């Protein structure tokens, strides 16, 4: 038998990799909507910016939860790490150039992810869940105690964020720059995550989620892959946090809070995790509902949201996208020749 | 001929429980053997020990001249151990193609060669793992292991739970794999007829020890001895 008679580019994995990358017809739709939103709702760009940041945060969570099967309740640890990196550097006059600050936010969050991942990812299930929660709580308390640097409970307000590329002002009242800036960063991050999940690395994450022992047996370094995924996800969450701090020109303890971690988890479950667009749909559904329910019923809007989540959890475990997929399957089955 | 695998005085088990005791086994490159025995005598544990899924209490496992002491499971796979587990354990939400490529490495076993063995798989490339029949799942499990391009393939009861007609077809595939000559195979099998037909050398295990290591034909021709060793006859 002739060994390695095929070229690497003709290898099964390489061929499949090339095939799966092809974009589908409907994929530009969310981006067209996002651009249309900018023109159609100029008075809602603050809300839109917050929404885009949440989508980015949900995308980072989907990578660990949906693709690698790492159950976490403490993803806000990385969001907060990114937000505080941008905030502290700007507030103390060390560095405030937006794009490079964002890169620093990603690096710091990735380091937090790497450090905690090395320890946490030795565990599974409930232990892992509790440890992720503890990591976030520790960081939140550290931010609270480090008043001198972090502003403690009050946070750091009025961050001096200079114009983007020296040209585009961050105006908190008319956040046009913020919206487009966050949209561009989200698009770049999305392309990166999309490439990652359709790569052999991404497929190995799906394999790990489904059967860890079997992945060991086919030669996949499971722990190293999980730590890598966790670190990448932390970096993206850090970018989301950094963007949030820049867009709002302040940072406080809510960036590291359980509320934020729970909100992004709920949004992702609502949209459907393990699908790259689940975060998009979930964040839009969650935030739009929260926004409009709060207008209708300011004191009890969470009740309506809670009821919806109960319905989703009971009848649509794969989220809104899961409902869509099930409907599509039914329609296809109906029109299939017998 | 160089040895692909050596087990030297191996005692192993799960935690503190010892299942295998003083196992000695040498397998030459390209050689295939069958392992038979009653339920619970340690056949699957033998394969699990080679893969690193058990606690090694004593002895040494050597693959292609390299000791596997403290070598993690995934490294063993990279070093040339392929494993077809008893429960098949395909990835249910991945497609057939994704199941195949997930551990694929360059080597003599390619997609085309696997499809020559199992043409059915080629027709079901875009089906998810959980949409396959038991026989197809077994084919996929064997193909996935072959595409890791192992030097030694460990197969744990591949015919278990399959319809007789599928067992016949799978046996034919196992024989062609054996005859390909570029792969050593250890086949653990409850079905002694399949096992004795598969290889010229058979190992019989009882109570965690090897109680017979010799020619398959001897056991085939001496059903009384076979019955004594494994407690049943086909």
What is the helix fraction of residues of chain B, given as a range? 25-40%
Taking the alpha carbons of the first and last residues of chain B, their distance comes to 34 Å
Structural class of chain A, by secondary structure, is: mainly alpha
Quaternary state of this entry equals heterodimer
Briefly note the structural class of the backbone of chain B.
alpha/beta
Approximately how much beta-strand content do the residues of chain A carry?
Answer: under 5%
Shape of chain B: globular
Radius of gyration of chain A: 21 Å
The DSSP helix count of chain A reads 15
Largest sheet of chain A: none
Task: Give the overall silhouette of chain A.
Answer: globular
Low-confidence runs of chain B: none
**Strand element count of chain B:** 10
Q: What this model shows, in words?
A:
The complex is a heterodimer of chains A (338) and B (234). Chain A has 338 residues and is an all-alpha fold. Chain A has a single domain (28-280), classed as Orthogonal Bundle (ABC transporter involved in vitamin B12 uptake, BtuC), CATH 1.10.3470. Chain A contains 15 helices and no strands. In chain A, helix 4 packs parallel to helix 6 (125-145) and helix 8 (176-197) packs antiparallel against helix 11. Chain A is globular. Mean pLDDT of chain A is 87; it is low at 1-6. Chain B is α/β, with parallel strands linked by helices and 234 residues long. Chain B is 36% helix and 29% strand. Chain B has ten helices and ten strands. In chain B, strand 4 (55-63) and strand 5 form a beta hairpin. Chain B is globular, with a radius of gyration of 17 Å. Chains A and B meet through helix 1, helix 9 and helix 10 of A and helix 2 and helix 3 of B.
